Amino acid sequence: MQDFTKFSLKEHSITTLKKQGVTQPTPIQQEVIPLLLEDKDVIAQAQTGSGKTFSFLLPMLEKVNPEENVIQALIVAPTRELAIQLTAELKQLSNQNNMLAVYGGQDVQQQLKKMKQKINIVVGTPGRLLDHIRRGTLDLSHVSMLVLDEADQMLHIGFLNEVEAIIQQTPSTRQTALFSATMASEVNKLAYKHMRHPHKVHIQSTTTTVEEIEQYVVETTDRQKQDALRKVLKDNRPFLAIIFCRTKRRVSRLYGDLKAQGYLVDELHGDLSQKKREKVMDAFREAKVQLLIATDVAARGLDVEGVTHVYNYDIPQDVESYIHRIGRTGRAGEDGVAVTFVAAKDMQMLTMIERGINKKLPRTRL
User: Fold this and answer.
1) Distances (CA, A) of 262 to 109, 254, 256, 282
2) Which residue ranges does UniProt annotate as crossing the membrane (predicted)?
3) What is the domain class of 4-203 according to CATH?
4) Which tens digits make up the pLDDT trace of 115-156?
5) Are 254 and 226 in contact (CB under 8 A)?
6) Domain 209-365 is in which class?
7) What would the pLDDT profile of 7-21 be if each residue is shown by its tens digit?
8) Is there a contact between 325 and 316 (Cβ–Cβ < 8 Å)?
9) Fold identical between 4-203 and 209-365?
10) 50: CB partners within 8 A, 6+ apart
């Protein structure tokens, strides 16, 4: 399979993938996309960094009919950050605005207001989804495609009962896809209880980039994080570096602060036009910009020679994002360094990342 055109996907999806520099499907995408397009149930076990996200988002966008004013697809994710990220990627791949993220810590009234608009795809965390189901504000009776993403993380956090309750609100005729880095017995049990003759896809990990990159953690607080970043930049003296932030707003704020302090810096996020994005990338490739501050979605498929350092200013919210981010450095046999800044509240996420990459990261405190 040479490129995404072989899957008969919507033109908009293929164009967007090309713009992001994604032209060839990964092994998991080659196996899972055709199965999901044929309405098969799928259990996919793949190590993080395998490209699993597009393997279910692309078929989902093919199947959803934007003319119908009902929720047709549901993605359940373990964390609100992952739910936000998945929704952002859906919006980038689609030319529709018919998707909604529902998660805790968000204004319920705002969510209720959005739910009155035409929504075809919902991405949410188990607790908040269940909250809406109990309020009677979320109708899942027309869902034809259900995706359980990061199923092992979801069960590890203790969401089994909530996930079961959500599944019971969807029609038994729906298509189900479950993605997990590991196949613990609870994940298997959940899969076989709720799926019809699922096709198992197991992709062996081929990621060696993680091994070859020098990685360490800087323990700090949210208040001191920017000072810690500047100190590390002074010590590391990167030639070219990418600094990852969780949201567009945080990208812009950090960009403004570092620019005011005289750094050669620019920003990359989903609000930029294609022309502006290309201008930023050209300046970065030519080393006219030394520090590129970006969101995960904006950096998808970004491949620049000579990136010496990656800084996780905000900790990634899943292992796949971690591997994807740090893989921007250490390309083509070159050395690379990845530094992750963590506050006390990030420790659980850090443990999850370390478990996913099977490596304890050295800590330093400034």
Assistant:
1) 42, 13, 10, 20
2) none
3) alpha beta
4) 888 899 999 999 999 999 999 999 999 999 999 998 987 887
5) yes
6) alpha beta
7) 988 888 888 888 877
8) yes
9) yes
10) 26, 27, 28, 203, 205, 207, 320
